[in-house]
């Protein structure tokens, strides 16, 4: 059996109540592990897109896709293959940085196109978008300042 | 032409148009308008059950016996939760059913109203799909979709939760002729890959020792004739799962009977030796495969199934073929060659002679003997429902099944108490056929109250209780794996004759072997009420052979060799089968 890897699934689903819980229920009942999941409506208001990142070996991945397809409310499931999609995540992080360290912080943020979105009481809220790997690297660098709170939206992706 | 109708009237018109003839259930506060409307239908017979679990199993038994969608009704809250076991049973065995549950009115949903329960939430994992009707104008579409989903693709139960106001409020109604469910098109009719079928056919054509491994998918798909044609054209022996019993006639020269945990010894040896295993509408269940890595370890594996999620789930196969079994078999028949399997069939026939079914008579009558007698008395033409446990396995081994929809049993979920209500449902579906419930005293008591339902409708259902005063299969496992400590597996004696009579059924008790056939014949002669025969059977008898959990197919307990040393006598299910055909394996 080959090794597990992260895979991005892009699902079109009916935009109605109860769909998210069906998907979450299926995934937990079948013992699959979700890395991230994001949901929003699409250009068609009756349809939502879910971007699900799962960690699985190829056989398990096939199972996830097949099981998702069994749900009546799931219209389409597509695996987004490496390099064949464009993805972004939004990150917000509260870090400790007194005024005298703002310059240092700015120099870290610059290569990431990240910005300071808010400041108060010696805390700075950082806002960044990028793909998951880029944001991982940013988080590593911010740790030097002491991250008090971190939130990420999870991956949204479009096929190329 | 659109009409303005109350929700419950719309519902009933939709049910009639879907061909519903009978609905099983219990009324209550939240579904009174529904019952009132169904009761006024001239096409739908409304059957009051004693417990909602009975209603669900009756709808299930009706569906399995007829191939039509079974319908059950329950009120909100506890009524709906009482259906859950029945839904789980139908879901695991892919049985088409529609459950209609009452719900508190839409304006108070979520307020903990009287008899409110989150029915959709509770039943989500045991239904193929479910609907909450929030507006009466959606009623017709939802009912139409529910029946479509229940009966197409891989069938299954669908639940519709009906808040009481949606059954009372009015809407303009036209019956929707067509159904468009955009997330369901492919599932309903999966496209067939001719390349996949060609690859499978090549593998079959190259094989020397092929076996068809057949499940209930063949029965659901109505593909029994195609299966026979394929087996006969290519000379391939056929083994069935528990739920596949009847898909292939066991009188046929190529029948191997059932495989798996309590399958025939020679059948399991044959599966262990085959070089090409053709799975058809079966899902490689753990009770079939034993240790998955060892299952048919030398074989190229083909898996034909309508549900892609069944493929490679427990056993990785070489040739997956997704599609409706009947359509796939039709294509496959064109591509397979007549194979020379004489040597292979000869090997299996030798093993069959060497390792037949066997039991040893003791003090009390044996359940196996009773089932042989039922098989003889009904000529293998009855509909057999069962509970779950030892009696179920003996029924599978010792009754000779020849037709699809003749074995009605809970396979996947293993629901004790399924037998009697399923037999009642089957009798409603097939009033002119003989229906037996072969049951255990443990299983039977879980839904025994439905005798009242059977008696009320004068159903000639026959119940054969193998009374060993134990949960026999549990007792067997405790003896095998828990050093004989019988933790809560012994049942208090119950007088089943009195229980039968209290429910206006005929009750017969049998203690001696010579009375077995007489009692069976007497039950067969009673046509206006249910008959319950309580057979006082040997308590310590075990089901053999047995593949212990997680073991391979050639590592059996209770083999012919062992049992013959202990004085066992070889058995046949029916005497004439082998004389009809020299090659007969069944």
Give the structure's gist in a few sentences.
The complex is a heterodimer of chains A (160) and B (586). Chain A is an alpha+beta fold and 160 residues long.
Q: Into which percent range does the helicity of residues of chain A fall?
A: 25-40%
Beta-strand share of residues of chain B: 15-25%
Overall body shape of chain A: elongated
Assigned CATH superfamily of the largest domain in chain A: ACT domain
Determine the mean pLDDT of chain B: 95
Provide the gyration radius of chain B in Å: 24 Å
Roughly how much helix do the residues of chain B carry, as a percent range? 25-40%
How many domains make up the 3D coordinates of chain A? Answer: 2
Order of helices and strands of chain A: EHEEHEEHEEHEE
Total of DSSP H or I helical runs spanning 4+ residues of chain A? 4
Low-confidence stretches of chain A: none
Can you tell me about this structure?
The complex is a heterodimer of chains A (160) and B (586). Chain A has 160 residues and is an alpha+beta fold. Chain A contains four helices and nine strands. Chain A has helices at residues 19-29, 58-70, 102-109, 132-142; strands at 5-14, 34-41, 47-56, 74-80, 85-96, 115-120, 123-130, 147-152, 156-159. In chain A, strands 5, 6, 7, 8 and 9 form a five-stranded antiparallel beta sheet that branches. Chain B has a six-stranded parallel beta sheet with strand order 3-2-4-5-7-6, with helices on both faces. In chain B, strands 11-10-9-12-13-14 form a six-stranded parallel beta sheet, sandwiched between helices. Chain B has a six-stranded parallel beta sheet with strand order 17-16-18-19-21-20, sandwiched between helices. Chain B is globular and about 70 Å long. Chain B has three domains: 3-184, Rossmann fold; 194-354, Rossmann fold, CATH 3.40.50; 363-540, 3-Layer(aba) Sandwich (Rossmann fold). Classes of the chains: A alpha+beta (160), B alpha/beta (586).
């Amino acid at each position: 059996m080959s090794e597990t890897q992260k895979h991005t699934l892009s699902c079109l689903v009916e935009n109605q109540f109860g769909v998210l819980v069906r998907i979450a229920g299926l995934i937990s009942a079948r013992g699959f592990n979700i890395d991230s999941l994001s949901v929003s409506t699409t250009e068609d208001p009756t349809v939502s897109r879910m971007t699900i990142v799962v960690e699985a070996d190829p056989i398990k991945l096939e199972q996830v896709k097949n099981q998702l397809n069994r749900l009546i409310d799931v219209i389409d499931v597509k695996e987004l293959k490496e390099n064949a999609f464009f993805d972004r995540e939004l990150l917000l992080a509260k870090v400790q940085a007194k005024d005298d360290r703002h310059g240092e912080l700015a120099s870290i943020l610059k290569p990431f196109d990240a910005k300071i979105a808010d400041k108060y009481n010696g805390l700075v809220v950082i806002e960044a978008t990028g793909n998951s790997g880029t944001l991982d690297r940013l988080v590593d660098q911010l740790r030097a300042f002491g991250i008090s709170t971190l939130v990420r939206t999870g991956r949204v992706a479009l096929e190329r | 032409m659109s009409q303005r109708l109350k929700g419950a009237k719309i519902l009933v018109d939709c049910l009639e148009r879907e061909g519903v003839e009978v609905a099983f259930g219990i009324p209550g506060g939240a579904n009174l308008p529904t019952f009132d409307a169904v009761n006024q239908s001239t096409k739908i017979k409304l059957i009051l059950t004693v417990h909602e679990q009975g209603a669900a199993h009756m709808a299930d038994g009706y569906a399995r016996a007829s191939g039509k969608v079974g319908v059950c009704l329950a009120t909100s809250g506890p009524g709906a939760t009482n259906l859950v076991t029945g839904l789980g049973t139908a879901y695991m065995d892919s049985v088409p059913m529609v459950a209609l549950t009452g719900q508190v009115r839409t304006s108070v949903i979520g307020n903990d109203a009287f008899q409110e329960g989150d029915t959709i939430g509770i039943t989500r994992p045991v239904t193929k799909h479910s609907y909450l009707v929030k507006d009466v104008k959606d009623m017709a579409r939802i009912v139409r979709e529910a029946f479509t989903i229940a009966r197409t693709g891989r069938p299954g139960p669908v639940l519709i939760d009906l808040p009481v106001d949606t059954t009372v409020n009015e809407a303009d109604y036209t019956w929707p002729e067509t159904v468009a469910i955009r997330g369901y098109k492919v599932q309903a009719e999966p496209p067939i890959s001719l390349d996949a079928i060609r690859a499978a056919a090549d593998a079959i054509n190259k094989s020397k020792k092929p076996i068809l491994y057949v499940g209930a998918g063949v029965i659901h798909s109505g593909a029994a004739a195609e299966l026979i044609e394929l087996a006969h054209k290519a000379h391939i022996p056929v083994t069935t799962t528990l739920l596949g019993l009847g898909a292939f006639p066991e009188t046929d020269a190529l029948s191997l009977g059932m495989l798996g945990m309590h399958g025939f010894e020679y059948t399991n040896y044959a599966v262990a030796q085959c070089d090409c295993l053709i799975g058809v509408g079966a899902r490689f269940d753990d009770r079939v495969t034993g240790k998955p890595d060892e299952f048919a370890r030398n074989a190229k594996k083909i898996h034909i199934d309508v549900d892609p999620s069944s493929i490679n789930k427990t056993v990785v196969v070489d040739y997956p073929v997704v599609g409706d079994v009947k359509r796939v078999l039709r294509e496959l028949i064109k591509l397979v060659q007549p194979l020379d399997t004489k040597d292979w069939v000869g090997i299996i026939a030798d093993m069959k002679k060497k390792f037949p079914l066997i039991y040893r008579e003791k003090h009390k009558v044996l359940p196996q003997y009773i089932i042989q007698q039922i098989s003889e008395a009904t000529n293998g033409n009855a509909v057999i429902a069962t509970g779950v446990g030892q009696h179920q396995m003996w029924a599978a081994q010792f009754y000779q099944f020849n037709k699809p929809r003749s074995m009605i049993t809970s396979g996947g979920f293993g629901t004790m108490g399924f037998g009697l209500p399923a037999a009642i449902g089957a009798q409603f579906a097939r009033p002119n056929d003989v229906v037996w419930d072969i049951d255990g005293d443990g299983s039977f008591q879980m839904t025994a109250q439905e005798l009242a339902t059977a008696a009320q409708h004068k159903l000639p259902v026959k119940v054969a209780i193998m009374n060993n005063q134990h949960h026999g299969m549990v007792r067997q496992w405790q003896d095998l794996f828990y050093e004989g400590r019988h933790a809560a597996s012994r049942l208090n004696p119950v007088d089943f004759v009195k229980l039968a009579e209290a429910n206006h059924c005929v009750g017969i008790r049998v203690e001696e072997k010579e009375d077995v056939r007489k009692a069976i014949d007497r039950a067969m002669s009673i046509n206006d009420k249910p008959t319950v025969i309580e057979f006082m059977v040997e308590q310590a008898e075990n089901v053999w052979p047995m593949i212990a959990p997680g073991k391979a197919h050639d590592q059996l307990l209770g083999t012919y060799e062992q049992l013959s040393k202990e004085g066992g006598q070889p058995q046949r299910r029916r005497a004439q089968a082998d004389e009809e055909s020299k090659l007969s394996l069944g």
